[in-house]
Amino acid sequence: MKIVLDRPRCEGHGLCEEAAPQLMHLDDDGELVIDREEVGDTEAPLANAAVRVCPVAALRIA
Amino acid sequence: MPLSDPPVSDLDLFDDKVLIDPYPSYSALRDLGSVVHLPANDAYALTRYDAIRSALGDWESFSSAGAIGFNPAVNEALSGTSLSSDPPVHTRLRATLTANLSPRALRGLKDGIEAKADALVTELVDKGSFEAIDALARAFPLEVVADLIGFTGHVRDNMLRWGQAAMQVIGPMNQRTAENFPIAGELYAWCSSVTADDLAPGSVGRGIFEAEDRGEIPPGTAGHIIHQYLGAGVDTTIASIGNIVALFAEHPDQLAQVREDPSLVPAAFNEVLRYWAPLHVWGRRATRDVEVDGALIPEGARVAILFGAGNRDPRHYENPDAFLVERNPTDHLSFGYGPHGCAGQGLARLEAHAVVKALSRRVERLVVGAGVRVPSNITRSFEELPVLEVVPA
């Protein structure tokens, strides 16, 4: 599975980073960086948690 | 399976008693169904968590265009704002609104806001007793927002009544709405004529006008953005901060948990927002016949989103009527969700986290008298909350 970011929609609230710091982080400019786009079964719950917590629905799983 | 008409209730969402304490009504509506037809409000209410969250994410079926308010005059007045539009128009307006309001734009403010909150809370703790709504819940966000946007003079003095009125008029055309339209009109008129020179140099408000001069945002939109900052960002934050004080006073064990583990500050604010939603109801319009859990919302119908009902849905939250900071309900509905999710939530978190942090650092226990609530169409908050005694940390 793959984490897909809708970049224009992301406002940098950072809740996804709190939910899944292993998979993504905000850089020094507050822009979201997906460190691991392709995730396996082990990280799937983390990826789903990050998607779920985004307050503006900027993340999805493909 | 054929679609059925939703259950009907004779409840009036804007009845004084419901506005003071909507939670028993929310529970009754949830038991009836995910969608309940309310003829008194000419609306289909969404009551359960999953139905609300899905609708908030589905702007194609549940439109905001001319539909967020419960009377035609307010929907007309809000036309052309991001609040009241759908993508693709919404996408551009939203980007303009959040350019100066997103967490990345606000990062530099955190330390200053925390210092302000700590100074104010320390002063109140030293006094030993105070009226929490005026002295903290109103004073703090009014100061933060005024300094941020660069309001000075008479505008600063009017922020509270303008902000309250901007929310009241979103209700149906009842007496509260009628009384508040002239006040909301003052805000609208001021925002239509405000210029960069009216705002403090170096402020975010001044920056919005500079962005307009540089052509980064369309001509004439700076005033609209200032209007939304004031209309949406004042009354709601005041409600949340008042609720923080009230809930910590009522649940000293929960305050003690945050005191022991300061990493619970964001969790505590999430739980405050879940437990008492600052906004009672918000509108949408069904763009087509929409099926929700087997019930039909007809095309063109007004939809009433009950954030607080979803936040207490036992299908989603275990023991939903308990206030438990460790629950950390990051997916609460009080900021909405999706494309229209609260544009100011980054600033709201900065302010509220600063208050929770300061209270948990300075206060062991608060003894409060009876809080006073006044029925209000959209915002649910305390009007007065006397803190009779502070046990300092």
Automatic annotation (TrEMBL), chain A:
<keyword id="KW-0249">Electron transport</keyword>
<keyword id="KW-0411">Iron-sulfur</keyword>
<keyword id="KW-0479">Metal-binding</keyword>
<dbReference type="GO" id="GO:0051538">
    <property type="term" value="F:3 iron, 4 sulfur cluster binding"/>
</dbReference>
<dbReference type="GO" id="GO:0046872">
    <property type="term" value="F:metal ion binding"/>
</dbReference>
<dbReference type="InterPro" id="IPR051269">
    <property type="entry name" value="Fe-S_cluster_ET"/>
</dbReference>
<dbReference type="Pfam" id="PF13459">
    <property type="entry name" value="Fer4_15"/>
</dbReference>
<keyword id="KW-0408">Iron</keyword>
<protein>
    <submittedName>
        <fullName>Ferredoxin</fullName>
    </submittedName>
</protein>
<keyword id="KW-0003">3Fe-4S</keyword>
<keyword id="KW-0813">Transport</keyword>
From TrEMBL, chain B:
<keyword id="KW-0349">Heme</keyword>
<dbReference type="InterPro" id="IPR001128">
    <property type="entry name" value="Cyt_P450"/>
</dbReference>
<dbReference type="InterPro" id="IPR017972">
    <property type="entry name" value="Cyt_P450_CS"/>
</dbReference>
<keyword id="KW-0479">Metal-binding</keyword>
<dbReference type="GO" id="GO:0016705">
    <property type="term" value="F:oxidoreductase activity, acting on paired donors, with incorporation or reduction of molecular oxygen"/>
</dbReference>
<comment type="similarity">
    <text>Belongs to the cytochrome P450 family.</text>
</comment>
<dbReference type="Pfam" id="PF00067">
    <property type="entry name" value="p450"/>
</dbReference>
<keyword id="KW-0560">Oxidoreductase</keyword>
<protein>
    <submittedName>
        <fullName>Cytochrome P450</fullName>
    </submittedName>
</protein>
<dbReference type="GO" id="GO:0005506">
    <property type="term" value="F:iron ion binding"/>
</dbReference>
<dbReference type="InterPro" id="IPR036396">
    <property type="entry name" value="Cyt_P450_sf"/>
</dbReference>
<keyword id="KW-0408">Iron</keyword>
<keyword id="KW-0503">Monooxygenase</keyword>
<dbReference type="GO" id="GO:0020037">
    <property type="term" value="F:heme binding"/>
</dbReference>
<dbReference type="GO" id="GO:0004497">
    <property type="term" value="F:monooxygenase activity"/>
</dbReference>
